[in-house]
Amino acid sequence: MRIGLIGTGRIGTFHSAVLGRLPEVTSLVIADADAARATALAARTGARAASVDELFGAGLDAVVITAATSAHAELIGRAARAGLPVFCEKPIALDLTGTLAALAEVETAGTVLQLGFQRRFDAGYAAAREAVRTDRLGRLHTVRAITSDPNPPPAAYLPLSGGLYRDCLVHDFDILRWVTGREVIEVYATGSDAGPAMFREAGDVDTATAVLTLDDGTLATATATRCNGAGYDVRMELAGERDQVAVGMDERTPLTSTEPAGPAAPLKPWSGFLERFAPAYEAELAAFVDVVAGRRANPCDGREALHALRIAEACERSRRERRPVPLAEIAEG
User: Fold this and answer.
1) How far apart are CA 149 and CA 254, in angstroms?
2) Fewer CB within 10 Å, N- or C-terminus of the chain?
């Protein structure tokens, strides 16, 4: 199988190594807006460097997009018009208009678009989904989702990120839908920019909370921060009338109990998303190869990204307008 990879940043570099280990990937062509960076990565991995135009003319079987977010929608459309299946890191675009336009191109072309929501391939989240779906917890009444980054991103990234809800919490919104099998019908969100000044300058927040009401009455909270000095902390707690479970609780969770007999601080807390979710990232690319080969259905198509983005849009509107926002207010396309 001949795969093209567009984008050689952190996640693109990681994905190139994963693709190089998959036995069905016989050749890899790498492109980037920075040609020198593409050439350097190709030399390290045994791949072939090319321009984006050359990549699309290389007789590929599929494309993996890990380029800058601003380029996602255009590249998805180009791959669709070329009849190529696409794996793309989230998001499709930072707004609903761009997202809907890219989805329309994929649907018109009849091609495949798999989105990179890697938590769907994490063993802990999969087990939580199974606990909900098999009724182990009984009636689910409360869900708590947490995403905490240890350090803020570069200041130059913030104006391009879409904000904390679209860039970071969108993962929690997606996994909340996937684990529970329910839809969000209303949100109430707030945020704080009391941390580094670069967040205020970008019109963003460094810490945010959202209260989400699901269509069966379950209540969920989703919190995120860019300034969690203890380490990278991603968890989910699900409480039902019979039992409760937690995702992300292990010996590396950056959380210290204050109880006398509680667990001590972790010796090596998680440092970031690539370390914490490495097996999930590998599993989602292996799944994409299976999709391209016709062995399985698409596990996370573009419409899933649209649903998560609509929740993020509702949260941003709620934060700015200081009111509850029904999801019905946000266009579905």
Assistant:
1) 11
2) C
Distance separating alpha carbons of residues 288 and 113, to the nearest angstrom: 9
Would you say domain 2-111 falls under CATH 3.40.50.720?
yes
| Integer CA distances (angstroms), 88 to 63, 145, 326, in order | 8, 24, 29
Superfamily name with CATH number, domain 120-273+307-329: Dihydrodipicolinate Reductase; domain 2 (3.30.360.10)
Q: CA angle, 312 as apex, 306 and 314 as ends, to 5°?
A: 105
Q: Which residues pair with 189 in a beta bridge?
A: 210
Task: Kindly report, residue by residue over 264-319, the tens digit of the pLDDT.
Answer: 899 999 999 999 999 999 999 999 999 999 999 999 999 999 999 999 999 999 99
Euclidean distance between CA atoms 204 and 326, whole angstroms: 22
pTM for this prediction: 0.96
Greatest CA separation found in the chain?
64
**pLDDT tens by residue, 27-78:** 999 999 999 999 999 999 999 999 999 999 999 999 999 999 999 999 999 9
Q: What is the dihedral of CA 215, 220, 224, 229, to 10 degrees?
A: -160
Residue 12: name the closest of 61, 60, 66, 49 by CA.
66
Mean pLDDT of the chain: 96
Domain range list for the chain: 2-111, 120-273+307-329
Please report which helix (H) or strand (E) contains residue 174, including its range: helix 170-180
